[in-house]
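Homework help board

Subject: predicted structure for assignment chain

Our instructor gave us this sequence and asked us to write out the predicted structure in C-alpha cell form, then describe one feature. I got the C-alpha cells but I'm not sure how to describe them. Can anyone check?
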Amino acid sequence: MSAKDRKAIIALEDGRVFEGKAFGARGERYGEIVFNTSMTGYQEILTDPSYKGQIVTMTYPLIGNYGANPEDVESARPHVEGFVVREYIKHYSNWRAHGSLEDFLKQYNIIGVEGVDTRAITRHIRSAGAMRAVISTEDLDPQHLVRKAQASPGLVGRDLVKEVTCQEQYRWPLGKTALDSAPFRVVAMDFGAKRNILQILEGLGCEVTVVPAHTSAEEILALSPDGIFLSNGPGDPAGVPYVVAEVKKLLAKRPIFGICLGHQILGLAFGGKTFKLKFGHRGGNQPVKDLRTGRIAITAQNHGFCVDIDSMNKEEVELTHINPNDGTLEGMRHKELPIYSVQYHPEASPGPHDARGLFGDFIAMMKEYRGY
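My C-alpha cell output:
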C-alpha cells in the first residue's frame, strides 16, 4: 500500500489540522474529538457505548501491542467514530489474542490514525476544549475538512442513547428464562450499558432484566424488580427528556443505583441541571474524594457532561463525592429515599477497582427493601 493510500487528515472546527497514517478502515467520520488517559484497555474503550459520537485520542503512545480478543469487549461492537494513536504496534503478543487491533477495526469499519502528535492534540483540547472534528482518508484538503467539521452536528441536545440502547428487553445472564434462581431481581435501563456492569451484578446474586431506554415506569414496575439500575451512556443528558420523565415516576418506588449518564439523569429527575465540561474526564486514573470519609479513590471515568453541583437541593440530596481536580460533582445520595449514583465507573473495564464496593451498597439497599 502506498504512502498516499495510507494518508489521513484530522481537522478540527477551530482550524487546527493533524496529519497521520491510516490503519483499520478507510473513509470519513465525524465526531467530537476527545482524549483518554488510560495506559491499557483500548478494546474496552472502543466498545464502550458511551463513546458514541466521539473520536478518541489515546494519550499513551503505544497502542495495539496485545492485539484483540472476543472477551475484552463491553458491547457487541465498537462505538467510537475514530481512533487516534501515536504509534500503532502491528506485531502484537498475547496468548489471548485472536487477531490484531487493525483487524478488529477493519471488521467493524472503524478508522484508525497513527503517527499523530497525540500530545499536541491533548494539549490543544485541554486549552481550547473538546470540539467537533472530522477524520478522513478520502478528502485530503485540510481547509475543506475544517469546513466539514464546522458543519457537523455537535453533542449538545442530541439524543445518542437511541442509537446504542437495546431494541428489546433481555435477561442477563444470557439464556436465563426465569428469575427464581437469583436472590435479587434488577431492571437495568439500557442507555448504553457496559457488559461488565451486568457481570458484576450477576456475580452478586442478581438476575437482570435489561430494558430499552424508552421503557415506561409502568412497564418497569410490572417486572416486580427489587432494584432499578440506570446505566452509563453517551451524549447530553438533556437530550433524553423522555427518560428523565420516566425516572421521576420511579423515584419513590424502588431502590435505584445510577452510573455516569444514569447519575446525570437522576440529577435532572431531582430537579437539578447539567452542563458540558470543557474537555471531560476520560481515563483510568481519575481521583474522586468521598466527602463523608475524606478518602481518595482512583477511578475510571468517561463523561463530557456533569450535574451542576450548585443546582442540587441540599435539603433532599446529600453530595457524597467530588472530583478534587475541578470540584465537579461525582456522587450523590437521596436523604430519604434509597437512591444513590456516581459519575464515575465502579465497574472499571478498563481501570482500577477502588470503587467496586458501590455495587455492594446497591445489594444492601435491595436487602432492606426485601426486609432481610
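Reply (TA_rk): Your C-alpha cells look well-formed. For the description, you could write something like this. Residues 8 and 350 are 28 Å apart (CA to CA). That's the kind of observation they're looking for.
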